[in-house]
Amino acid sequence: MRHQKIFLVVASTAVLTMSQSTMAAGFAVSAQSAYGMGNAYAGNAAVAGDASTVLTNPAGIFELEKPVFALSVPFTSSNAYYTDEGSLTNPLFGAQPVAVEDGRRTSLDQRRVSPTPALYYARKLSDQWALGLGISIPFATSTDYGENWIGRYHATETAVTAVDINPTAAFRINDKVSIGGGISVQFASALLSSKLDSGATCLGISQAAQLPITTCGNIGLSPNDPSLDSNVELDGSGTEVTFNLGVLVKPRDGTKIGLAYRHGTDHSLKGDAKFTNNPALGAFVGNFPEGSQPLQNTGTTISANLPATFDFSVAQMANEKLQLLGTIKWTQWSSFDQLTSNFDNPAQSPSVLDFRWEDTVTLSTGVNYTLNSKTTLRAGFSFDQSPIPNPRSRSPRGPANDRYWYSFGGTYKINKNISANAAFTHIQIDESAIDNPGAPGNPTLRGAYEFDVNLFAFQLNWHFV
């Protein structure tokens, strides 16, 4: 029924709109190693300079002189500033300015510091075989707007993490060509919440049930009254398996060409949809016959397709000290076109949300410079295209736009077995307009975001025999 679909969409905006990170286009986490961050991840699939090559291109393990274990801890420091530019209730409810209790209509300042640690291990078993293991966080985001901001019917809290365990193997065909691949076991979890306009919700249900138009007013429920808000929260988790492949070619001394492919992941997160209804709204829906009551706690399964990536990288020695790096990376965000939610409650029919995201290209360039026997310096620049094609497709759970990375870092050899990497990146993000109509019956969130994003990363490498 119509009233069911309205609220199912509100409750199931989950895995897609929730998880766009400020670190990479869409919601992928690019900050996987301090070594690569220093170059803005230019040459990522070709340079094979540290143990994180098990993630970026396992064929590169043969470029490592010794077995190595690495712990990398990147941090993202992000400030998001939202300015409202005329958010309105749905035309069904008068297209009025969205009300807030504390008058916080015009701006919102949200600050976050988030770590995304990673572990890597790589070693050659022989001249022809090598093994590696990577444990990383490929997708993550966390936002908390509070319960009384103007976009509360779109999003209040988001906490999403995907942990990837990626064992890999590599085979050297000859001195010029090696290949590699791995299996990724990916565990994802999500917690998402938003508010429901109790008055608008009641009117929608009443209309669908052909009840008198005065029904909601008689029980004290009117639209656009924040003191009457209800709450919906989704949580879920799931584990899926995918794979990655890589090739490293060295056509001549000083030149490396890397190709890396990571397959997409079809995730199904199983969990619960929990409704905390305003008392009057709860009593109202409780009067419906058992088995046909909307807005009841229930199990849910949310399905979405995470994108595949293809990486073409080059690393070229210009002289004995200077290495030039470049990468073109394609991400298949168009596969992330729908979010489907199925509910255990038979009164709540499945809902499908369409998201018209587009495939993206990331372009990176960088350099490594060997200062002396102990110190290597790095720098890089990257243009990271956003998959969000227009303001209507932008969500407050991840509103960022095209990104421009400015990176520098370096490696210092502490002794023959231990080295350390450090890196810093400033990410410039274009101002992001939002004009999101939300789920059916929701207000339109209309405004603009500005961002201040910096990445810091530290990495310890233990080289052993």
Give an account of the 3D structure:
The protein contains 7 helices and 20 strands. Strand 11 and strand 12 form a beta hairpin. It has a 14-stranded antiparallel beta barrel. The chain has 465 residues and is mainly beta. It has one domain (2-463): Beta Barrel (Porin). It has helices spanning 2-11, 14-18, 34-37, 53-56, 198-208, 215-218, 279-286; strands at residues 68-84, 107-115, 118-124, 129-144, 157-172, 177-196, 230-249, 255-262, 265-276, 298-306, 309-317, 322-331, 338-343, 351-354, 360-370, 375-384, 403-413, 418-429, 432-436, 445-463.
Query: Which word captures the global form?
Result: elongated
The structural class is mainly beta
- Summed up, the helix count is 7
Low-confidence stretches: 1-26
Walk across the major sheet and give the strand order.
1-3-4-5-6-7-8-11-12-15-16-17-18-20
Q: What sequence of helices (H) and strands (E) makes up the elements?
A: HHHHEEEEEEHHEEEHEEEEEEEEEEE
Report how far apart the termini are.
Answer: 66 Å
Integer average pLDDT = 87
Largest sheet: 14 strands, antiparallel, barrel
- Look up the CATH topology: Porin
